[in-house]
Protein backbone atom coordinates (compact mmCIF):
# COMPACT_ATOMS: atom_id res chain seq x y z
CA UNK A 1 0.00 0.00 0.00
CA UNK A 2 1.25 3.46 -0.88
CA UNK A 3 1.76 5.70 2.09
CA UNK A 4 1.98 9.43 1.60
CA UNK A 5 4.38 10.91 4.09
CA UNK A 6 3.54 14.15 5.83
CA UNK A 7 6.32 16.68 5.70
CA UNK A 8 8.23 17.25 8.94
CA UNK A 9 7.83 20.70 10.54
CA UNK A 10 11.15 22.51 10.57
CA UNK A 11 12.27 26.04 11.37
CA UNK A 12 14.04 27.64 8.39
CA UNK A 13 17.78 27.97 8.93
CA UNK A 14 18.83 31.23 10.52
CA UNK A 15 15.28 31.97 11.73
CA UNK A 16 14.22 32.33 15.35
CA UNK A 17 11.44 29.81 16.11
CA UNK A 18 8.12 31.58 16.64
CA UNK A 19 5.67 30.60 19.38
CA UNK A 20 3.80 28.61 16.74
CA UNK A 21 6.99 26.76 15.73
CA UNK A 22 7.58 25.80 19.37
CA UNK A 23 4.03 24.54 19.91
CA UNK A 24 4.11 22.52 16.68
CA UNK A 25 7.60 21.07 17.32
CA UNK A 26 6.58 20.03 20.83
CA UNK A 27 3.54 18.13 19.53
CA UNK A 28 5.50 16.65 16.63
CA UNK A 29 8.04 15.23 19.11
CA UNK A 30 5.16 13.61 21.00
CA UNK A 31 4.18 11.83 17.78
CA UNK A 32 1.06 13.92 17.19
CA UNK A 33 -0.26 14.84 13.73
CA UNK A 34 0.79 18.40 12.94
CA UNK A 35 0.04 20.50 9.85
CA UNK A 36 2.55 21.41 7.14
CA UNK A 37 3.25 24.97 6.05
CA UNK A 38 1.02 24.73 2.98
CA UNK A 39 -2.05 24.35 5.21
CA UNK A 40 -1.37 27.65 6.95
CA UNK A 41 -2.83 30.47 4.91
CA UNK A 42 -1.16 33.84 4.47
CA UNK A 43 -3.06 36.97 5.60
CA UNK A 44 -3.73 37.74 1.93
CA UNK A 45 -5.21 34.28 1.33
CA UNK A 46 -7.38 34.59 4.44
CA UNK A 47 -8.65 37.92 3.11
CA UNK A 48 -9.65 36.18 -0.12
CA UNK A 49 -11.32 33.26 1.67
CA UNK A 50 -13.17 35.74 3.92
CA UNK A 51 -14.55 37.51 0.82
CA UNK A 52 -15.62 34.18 -0.68
CA UNK A 53 -17.23 33.42 2.69
CA UNK A 54 -19.20 36.66 2.63
CA UNK A 55 -20.64 35.79 -0.77
CA UNK A 56 -21.29 32.19 0.34
CA UNK A 57 -23.21 33.49 3.38
CA UNK A 58 -25.15 35.89 1.16
CA UNK A 59 -26.14 33.00 -1.12
CA UNK A 60 -27.56 31.09 1.86
CA UNK A 61 -29.30 34.23 3.15
CA UNK A 62 -30.92 34.55 -0.29
CA UNK A 63 -32.02 30.89 -0.21
CA UNK A 64 -33.38 31.39 3.32
CA UNK A 65 -35.41 34.38 2.18
CA UNK A 66 -37.03 32.54 -0.73
CA UNK A 67 -37.29 28.85 0.17
CA UNK A 68 -40.85 27.66 0.76
CA UNK A 69 -43.20 24.68 0.57
CA UNK A 70 -44.18 23.79 -2.97
CA UNK A 71 -40.78 24.78 -4.35
CA UNK A 72 -38.72 22.14 -6.11
CA UNK A 73 -35.09 21.65 -5.16
CA UNK A 74 -34.19 22.49 -8.78
CA UNK A 75 -35.63 25.97 -8.18
CA UNK A 76 -33.31 26.31 -5.17
CA UNK A 77 -30.43 25.24 -7.40
CA UNK A 78 -31.31 27.95 -9.92
CA UNK A 79 -31.42 30.60 -7.19
CA UNK A 80 -27.98 29.52 -6.03
CA UNK A 81 -26.54 29.58 -9.56
CA UNK A 82 -28.08 32.95 -10.48
CA UNK A 83 -27.24 34.74 -7.22
CA UNK A 84 -23.68 33.41 -7.14
CA UNK A 85 -22.82 34.25 -10.75
CA UNK A 86 -24.53 37.67 -10.60
CA UNK A 87 -22.12 38.52 -7.78
CA UNK A 88 -19.04 37.38 -9.65
CA UNK A 89 -18.73 33.95 -8.02
CA UNK A 90 -18.79 30.37 -9.25
CA UNK A 91 -20.79 27.61 -7.52
CA UNK A 92 -18.08 25.06 -6.71
CA UNK A 93 -20.27 21.92 -6.87
CA UNK A 94 -21.18 22.46 -10.56
CA UNK A 95 -19.29 19.76 -12.52
CA UNK A 96 -17.16 18.96 -9.47
CA UNK A 97 -16.20 15.30 -9.94
CA UNK A 98 -19.31 14.79 -12.04
CA UNK A 99 -21.74 16.53 -9.67
CA UNK A 100 -24.46 17.92 -11.95
CA UNK A 101 -25.70 21.00 -10.03
CA UNK A 102 -24.75 24.19 -8.15
CA UNK A 103 -25.64 23.07 -4.62
CA UNK A 104 -26.66 20.01 -2.63
CA UNK A 105 -30.26 19.70 -1.42
CA UNK A 106 -30.73 16.89 1.08
CA UNK A 107 -34.25 16.16 2.29
CA UNK A 108 -35.16 14.05 5.38
CA UNK A 109 -33.32 10.70 5.10
CA UNK A 110 -30.82 12.12 2.59
CA UNK A 111 -27.69 12.62 4.68
CA UNK A 112 -25.84 14.81 2.15
CA UNK A 113 -25.01 15.36 -1.54
CA UNK A 114 -28.69 15.34 -2.51
CA UNK A 115 -29.09 16.32 -6.17
CA UNK A 116 -31.55 19.11 -6.97
CA UNK A 117 -34.47 17.86 -9.05
CA UNK A 118 -37.68 19.14 -10.53
CA UNK A 119 -39.38 16.09 -9.02
CA UNK A 120 -38.40 16.86 -5.42
CA UNK A 121 -40.98 19.35 -4.22
CA UNK A 122 -40.72 20.57 -0.61
CA UNK A 123 -43.68 19.56 1.54
CA UNK A 124 -44.93 20.53 5.00
CA UNK A 125 -42.87 18.71 7.61
CA UNK A 126 -39.79 18.21 5.42
CA UNK A 127 -36.38 19.08 6.83
CA UNK A 128 -33.94 20.06 4.08
CA UNK A 129 -30.25 20.91 4.08
CA UNK A 130 -28.98 23.31 1.43
CA UNK A 131 -25.19 23.12 1.08
CA UNK A 132 -23.44 25.82 -0.96
CA UNK A 133 -19.78 26.27 -1.77
CA UNK A 134 -18.68 29.48 -3.46
CA UNK A 135 -15.54 30.23 -5.45
CA UNK A 136 -14.61 33.92 -5.58
CA UNK A 137 -11.33 35.11 -7.12
CA UNK A 138 -10.09 31.51 -6.83
CA UNK A 139 -10.87 31.18 -3.10
CA UNK A 140 -13.40 28.70 -1.65
CA UNK A 141 -15.90 28.88 1.22
CA UNK A 142 -18.40 26.18 2.16
CA UNK A 143 -21.50 26.32 4.40
CA UNK A 144 -24.90 24.72 4.79
CA UNK A 145 -28.12 25.32 6.70
CA UNK A 146 -31.24 23.35 7.58
CA UNK A 147 -34.69 24.59 6.65
CA UNK A 148 -37.88 23.21 8.22
CA UNK A 149 -40.98 23.35 6.05
CA UNK A 150 -43.84 24.58 8.23
CA UNK A 151 -44.28 22.40 11.28
CA UNK A 152 -42.55 19.09 11.59
CA UNK A 153 -42.56 16.22 14.07
CA UNK A 154 -41.07 17.54 17.34
CA UNK A 155 -38.49 14.73 17.26
CA UNK A 156 -37.38 15.89 13.79
CA UNK A 157 -37.21 19.48 14.98
CA UNK A 158 -35.10 18.30 17.93
CA UNK A 159 -32.76 16.51 15.47
CA UNK A 160 -32.28 19.75 13.53
CA UNK A 161 -31.52 21.58 16.81
CA UNK A 162 -29.12 18.90 18.05
CA UNK A 163 -27.21 19.11 14.75
CA UNK A 164 -26.89 22.89 15.25
CA UNK A 165 -25.74 22.39 18.84
CA UNK A 166 -23.15 19.84 17.67
CA UNK A 167 -21.66 22.42 15.30
CA UNK A 168 -21.57 24.99 18.12
CA UNK A 169 -19.97 22.48 20.51
CA UNK A 170 -17.25 21.93 17.90
CA UNK A 171 -16.81 25.68 17.48
CA UNK A 172 -16.50 26.09 21.28
CA UNK A 173 -13.72 23.49 21.49
CA UNK A 174 -11.90 25.63 18.90
CA UNK A 175 -12.18 28.77 21.04
CA UNK A 176 -8.38 28.57 21.37
CA UNK A 177 -5.69 27.38 18.96
CA UNK A 178 -3.53 24.25 19.43
CA UNK A 179 -6.45 21.89 19.98
CA UNK A 180 -6.74 18.65 18.02
CA UNK A 181 -9.43 17.70 15.52
CA UNK A 182 -10.11 14.70 17.79
CA UNK A 183 -10.81 16.99 20.78
CA UNK A 184 -13.57 18.59 18.76
CA UNK A 185 -14.88 15.32 17.30
CA UNK A 186 -15.02 13.77 20.75
CA UNK A 187 -17.08 16.66 22.15
CA UNK A 188 -19.42 16.70 19.14
CA UNK A 189 -20.16 12.96 19.32
CA UNK A 190 -20.71 13.16 23.09
CA UNK A 191 -23.30 15.88 22.58
CA UNK A 192 -25.08 13.86 19.89
CA UNK A 193 -25.12 10.70 22.00
CA UNK A 194 -26.33 12.57 25.09
CA UNK A 195 -29.34 13.49 22.98
CA UNK A 196 -29.84 9.93 21.70
CA UNK A 197 -28.63 10.82 18.22
CA UNK A 198 -25.70 9.38 16.24
CA UNK A 199 -22.86 10.87 14.18
CA UNK A 200 -22.22 9.82 10.59
CA UNK A 201 -18.72 8.36 10.32
CA UNK A 202 -18.30 7.96 6.56
CA UNK A 203 -18.15 11.70 5.80
CA UNK A 204 -16.28 14.50 7.51
CA UNK A 205 -15.42 18.19 7.49
CA UNK A 206 -12.27 19.32 5.74
CA UNK A 207 -9.70 21.98 5.12
CA UNK A 208 -10.99 24.50 2.59
CA UNK A 209 -9.88 27.75 0.98
CA UNK A 210 -7.45 27.27 -1.88
CA UNK A 211 -9.33 24.15 -2.97
CA UNK A 212 -12.77 22.64 -2.29
CA UNK A 213 -11.47 19.82 -0.10
CA UNK A 214 -8.08 20.07 1.59
CA UNK A 215 -6.42 18.46 4.58
CA UNK A 216 -7.12 18.00 7.43
CA UNK A 217 -10.04 15.59 7.59
CA UNK A 218 -12.34 16.95 10.29
CA UNK A 219 -14.05 13.90 11.77
CA UNK A 220 -17.01 14.61 14.03
CA UNK A 221 -16.21 11.73 16.42
CA UNK A 222 -13.07 10.19 17.88
CA UNK A 223 -10.58 10.50 20.68
CA UNK A 224 -9.05 13.55 22.29
CA UNK A 225 -5.49 14.24 21.18
CA UNK A 226 -5.93 12.45 17.82
CA UNK A 227 -6.26 14.01 14.39
CA UNK A 228 -4.42 17.12 13.29
CA UNK A 229 -3.33 19.97 15.54
CA UNK A 230 -5.23 23.15 14.61
CA UNK A 231 -2.96 26.19 14.49
CA UNK A 232 -3.52 29.85 13.57
CA UNK A 233 -3.96 30.40 9.83
CA UNK A 234 -5.69 27.09 9.13
CA UNK A 235 -9.09 27.28 7.38
CA UNK A 236 -11.53 24.37 7.65
CA UNK A 237 -15.16 23.35 7.95
CA UNK A 238 -17.07 21.76 10.79
CA UNK A 239 -20.19 20.04 9.43
CA UNK A 240 -21.53 17.25 11.65
CA UNK A 241 -24.14 14.98 10.05
CA UNK A 242 -26.44 13.86 12.86
CA UNK A 243 -28.82 10.89 12.48
CA UNK A 244 -31.96 10.11 14.45
CA UNK A 245 -31.32 6.36 14.14
CA UNK A 246 -28.21 4.39 13.25
CA UNK A 247 -25.11 6.24 11.99
CA UNK A 248 -24.73 3.90 9.02
CA UNK A 249 -25.26 5.34 5.54
CA UNK A 250 -25.75 3.87 2.06
CA UNK A 251 -26.02 4.92 -1.56
CA UNK A 252 -29.24 5.41 -3.51
CA UNK A 253 -29.80 2.54 -5.96
CA UNK A 254 -31.77 4.83 -8.24
CA UNK A 255 -29.07 7.49 -8.44
CA UNK A 256 -26.92 6.99 -11.55
CA UNK A 257 -24.38 9.60 -10.38
CA UNK A 258 -23.55 7.74 -7.16
CA UNK A 259 -23.46 11.02 -5.22
CA UNK A 260 -26.58 10.77 -3.04
CA UNK A 261 -26.00 9.52 0.53
CA UNK A 262 -28.94 8.10 2.51
CA UNK A 263 -29.38 6.83 6.06
CA UNK A 264 -29.42 3.02 6.01
CA UNK A 265 -32.47 2.82 8.27
CA UNK A 266 -34.52 5.48 6.49
CA UNK A 267 -34.67 7.73 9.56
CA UNK A 268 -33.90 11.44 9.09
CA UNK A 269 -30.51 13.18 9.23
CA UNK A 270 -29.59 16.82 9.81
CA UNK A 271 -26.47 18.92 9.19
CA UNK A 272 -25.20 22.49 9.53
CA UNK A 273 -21.82 23.65 8.20
CA UNK A 274 -19.61 26.70 8.70
CA UNK A 275 -16.20 27.62 7.29
CA UNK A 276 -13.76 28.83 9.98
CA UNK A 277 -10.28 30.31 10.24
CA UNK A 278 -8.23 29.48 13.33
CA UNK A 279 -6.62 32.58 14.88
CA UNK A 280 -4.48 33.26 17.97
CA UNK A 281 -7.79 33.73 19.83
CA UNK A 282 -9.68 30.70 18.49
CA UNK A 283 -11.88 30.28 15.44
CA UNK A 284 -13.60 33.04 13.53
CA UNK A 285 -16.57 32.18 11.28
CA UNK A 286 -15.83 32.95 7.62
CA UNK A 287 -19.04 31.58 6.20
CA UNK A 288 -22.35 30.38 7.62
N1 LIG B 1 -20.32 20.95 0.16
C1 LIG B 1 -20.04 19.57 0.46
C2 LIG B 1 -19.13 19.58 1.65
O1 LIG B 1 -19.52 20.13 2.65
C3 LIG B 1 -19.42 18.85 -0.68
C4 LIG B 1 -20.31 18.71 -1.81
S1 LIG B 1 -19.47 18.02 -3.12
C5 LIG B 1 -20.59 18.22 -4.36
O2 LIG B 1 -18.01 19.17 1.65
F1 LIG B 1 -19.99 17.95 -5.45
F2 LIG B 1 -21.60 17.43 -4.11
F3 LIG B 1 -21.03 19.46 -4.36
CO1 LIG C 1 -17.78 20.96 3.47
CO1 LIG D 1 -20.61 21.92 2.20
Number of helices: 5
CATH H level: which superfamily? Creatinase/methionine aminopeptidase superfamily
* CATH fold type: Creatine Amidinohydrolase
For the largest beta-sheet, the strand count, sense and barrel status come to: 4 strands, antiparallel
General shape? globular
CATH class: Alpha Beta
How many beta-strand elements?
A: 17
Report the C-alpha radius of gyration, rounded.
19 Å
Q: How many domain units?
A: 1
Distance between the termini: 38 Å
What is the helix fraction of residues, given as a range? Answer: 25-40%
Strand residue content? 15-25%
Bound molecules: 2-amino-4-trifluoromethylsulfanyl-butyric acid, cobalt (II) ion
Q: Supply the CATH architecture.
A: Alpha-Beta Complex
- Structural class, please? alpha+beta
> What's the helix-strand series?
HHHEEEEEHEHEEEEEEEEEEE
Q: Taking all residues together, what is the mean pLDDT?
A: 98
Describe this protein's structure.
This protein is an alpha+beta fold and 288 residues long. It has a single domain, classed as Creatinase/methionine aminopeptidase superfamily (Creatine Amidinohydrolase, Alpha-Beta Complex). The protein has 5 helices and 17 strands. Strands 1, 2, 4 and 5 form a 4-stranded antiparallel β-sheet that branches. Helix 2 packs across helix 3 (73-86) and helix 4 (154-173) packs antiparallel against helix 5. The longest helix has 24 residues, at 43-66. The model has no long low-confidence stretch (mean pLDDT 98). The structure holds 2-amino-4-trifluoromethylsulfanyl-butyric acid (MF3) and cobalt (II) ion (2 copies).
